[in-house]
Design brief:
- It is a single chain.
- The chain is extended and about 65 Å long.
- It starts with a helix and ends with a strand.
- The longest helix has 29 residues.
- It is of the alpha/beta class.
- The chain is built from five helices and nine strands, in the order αββααβαβββαβββ.
- Strands 6-9-8-7 form a four-stranded mixed β-sheet, with helices on one face. A three-stranded mixed β-sheet has the order 3-5-4, covered by helices on one side. Strands 1-2 form a two-stranded antiparallel sheet.
């Protein structure tokens, strides 16, 4: 590619100009008319050669991009289906997710086919899968602000309403450090949750 883009390797162009139009014909060596045009029509000739080189460069780059696009990994990603969250006590977690956050159980998901207890909760069109399993993460020494820990983010319409709900339930939270409308809190098993306000 470097040889196509370097000025020394650019193919000289012979320009045939008349009063109404100009065109370029490729030749292997510079001709007298090429040199004359460059000298007599300084900007016209130089600008034309520059445009021709730019055109070649664009063409090469477009072909490279098309080739790279063909190599793009595509297996049909649609969305996040669910997020798995570990809990020590399913009933305690369901109390939090259902009675504080207002999430509903997806009864269509299997509960009895897995070798552990769990529940699937709707979050819009996606889900949280609560799994009653031993948690390998430490429950103490975690960052006070959930935004500095691994967390699940849920888009909501009104952060101020959720703030009132958490205040009423006595559940601690922190606000987004960036100033955007978002709240970070933790579930009973110290799993960090972010609730970010979106429009629409």
């Amino acid at each position: 590619m470097a040889s196509l883009l370097s000025p020394s390797a650019a193919i000289p162009l012979q320009l045939k100009l008349n009063r109404t139009s100009s065109s370029a014909v490729s030749t292997n060596a510079p001709s007298k008319s090429y040199n004359t045009i460059i000298q007599d029509q300084k900007c016209r000739g130089l600008c034309f050669v520059t445009r021709a080189q730019s055109s070649v460069e664009r063409s090469v780059l477009e072909k490279e991009r098309a080739s790279e696009a063909g190599d793009k990994i595509d297996y049909g990603v649609v969305s996040v289906h669910h997020v798995g969250i570990l809990c020590e006590n399913l009933e305690r977690s369901l109390d939090f997710y259902q009675n504080i956050l207002g999430l509903e159980i997806n009864e269509a998901r299997p509960h009895d086919k897995l070798p552990y207890r769990g529940a699937w909760l709707w979050v819009g069109s996606e889900m949280i899968h609560l799994m009653e399993l031993p948690n390998p993460d430490p429950l103490t020494g975690r960052p006070a602000h959930g935004g500095r820990d691994r967390h699940t983010c849920i888009a909501i319409r009104d952060v101020s309403k959720l703030k009132t709900i958490l205040d009423k339930a006595g559940i601690p939270y922190t606000l987004s450090k960036s100033g955007r409308p978002a709240i970070f809190t933790r579930d009973p098993d110290a799993n960090a949750l972010e609730f970010t306000q979106v429009d629409g």
